[in-house]
Amino acid sequence: MDAGAIAMEMETPRLRLRQWCDADYSPFSVLNADAEVMRFFPAPLTRAESDAMADRCRALIAGRGWGPWAVERKLDRAFIGFVGLHEPAAALPFSPCVEIAWRLARDAWGSGLATEAARAALEYGFGTLGLDEIVSFTTLENRRSRAMMERLGMREDALGFEHPALPPGHPLRPHCLYRLPRATWQASAA
Predict the structure, then answer these.
(1) For 115-172, what is each residue's pLDDT tens digit?
(2) Which SS3 state, helix, strand or coil, does residue 13 take?
(3) Which of 77, 79, 78 is nearest to 69 (CA)?
(4) Is 4 part of a structural domain of the chain?
């Protein structure tokens, strides 16, 4: 996972995964304020919280060439959210790890765009970074994300866990973990 494997931008048939730009901040704040998009997070984000998150994503990509990339639809050049790889800061029971994460605007849901972008990110993680495994996790009730994890070839691990960033008793604290080993990814790509 070194900066020598820099890929500031990737393309898929319908998308560009790229570094963040100033114009992304406003639509990102709208996405993060949408109660349905943020349904499985503790709360929607304020504009300041959203901008701080975009700043962190931007800094990660600038520093090492990869991270939660901004996703732009090629057809209309619209920013639709982020998809990418991230090393969680929280002390999780399966740390250290690299996770694949995503958050797209509702008007991009149901069209396969998240899966398309995630496959590009996985290819980068396994092919370029040489990762042995990529994980993903979510609250137990997040059926849409769990279905996407399964479409990506990830399998649920028996290790359920309580997310340490949420207080005991919080309804979103119980999480499930999905794993994708490089060998499984390579076998499915072959």
Answers:
(1) 999 999 999 999 999 999 999 999 999 999 999 999 999 999 998 999 999 999 999 9
(2) coil
(3) 79
(4) no
pLDDT exceeds 90 at position 22: yes
Q: Specify the number of domains making up the chain.
A: 1
35: domain CATH number is 3.40.630.30
Segments forming the whole domain that contains residue 23: 10-189
In the numeric block, which tokens belong to residue 80?
């639709």
Question: Which residues touch 26 (CB under 8 Å, ≥6 apart)?
Answer: none
The predicted-structure confidence for 87-102, as pLDDT tens digits, reads as follows 998 789 999 999 999 9
E strand spans, the chain: 10-11, 15-18, 68-73, 78-86, 99-104, 133-139, 155-156, 161-162, 174-181
Give the pTM. Answer: 0.93
What's the chain's average pLDDT? 93
Place 37 in a pLDDT band, splitting at 50, 70 and 90.
Answer: very high
Residues with Cβ within 8 Å of residue 169, at least 6 apart in sequence: none
CA–CA gap between residue 128 and residue 133 (Å, rounded)? 13
Q: Is there a domain that residue 3 lies in?
A: no
Q: Quick check: is 49 in a domain?
A: yes
Give the single-character DSSP code of 44. P
Q: Is residue 22 part of a domain?
A: yes
